[in-house]
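Risk register update: the risk of archive-format incompatibility is retired. Evidence:
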Amino acid sequence: MSKSFFQYTICVVLLLAFASCRSRRYIYGEDDIYTHNNYNVNVNTNTNVYTPTSTDKHLARELYKETNSWIGVPYRYGGNDKRGVDCSGFVCQVFLKVYGKQLHRSSNDQYMKDIAYYINGNELQIGDLVFFATGKTKKVTHVGIYLGDCMFIHASSSKGVRIDDLRSSYYQRTWVAGGVVK
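Archived output:
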């Protein structure tokens, strides 16, 4: 199976998942109804609701485009390019290309030094970082980028760059926090 066919398939699956999920955040629509946590609110009357700006929509498109180009890249500890990459290297490369931000190289340093503030899973926005403690200690050892609808992209040590669901038992068990980058 070719890499481009695999990437196309992932895009279709993501689009279908985003279209069918009841709890979603619209990034491309111009509707004045915003869906979150299974209820609708009118963004024109509720000032506490996040409303994506045109800049947010542009950056989300750029983020999807860039992360899509990494799907299937093999995992390599300490890797920093498309020949092989680890989780923090992947996040560093994507943030530099999409947002022009240079992040620290390790997932724990990204968690400790690059986050403006921490958030719960239900407050995540597209482009936020998600952190996990996958070892025996509570130290952050893994990082990914939130894509929306409980999905995030990361460099998995067993399967390379891929998209996974935050609701899976493994990621719920190892979850530490979400974070908005400075």
